[in-house]
Design brief:
about 120 residues, mainly alpha, 434 Repressor (Amino-terminal Domain), 8 helices
Amino acid sequence: MKHFNDQQDSMEIAARLKNIREAKGISREDVAAELGISPITYRKLENGNHNLTIMNLKKLSEILQVTTDLLLFGETGRENINFDEYERLARLFTNFKTDVDLIQRIQAPDQTNTSTKK
């Protein structure tokens, strides 16, 4: 079973991100523009010097046309990773809790509005 090391995993994800982008022939500037961040910030992502948010991970998978699993785990996928290890990796993302809360609010109907309409 794979065990995660935050610094090491961050560098591995950054290296995969750069390798995939280069293999697809996409410039840093184009990816940064599609993400809505500066090329300098994107360069920091590829160098492992800037934390990747869940939302940007999803956008990057769409831009690069790969799965988030490929970006996070490489070729082996996540089949040998238990949930605790997956959750630990998720902590690499600075806005994980904020992004999850946002997604839950978007996906869940507003309970306060439905109760007041009765």
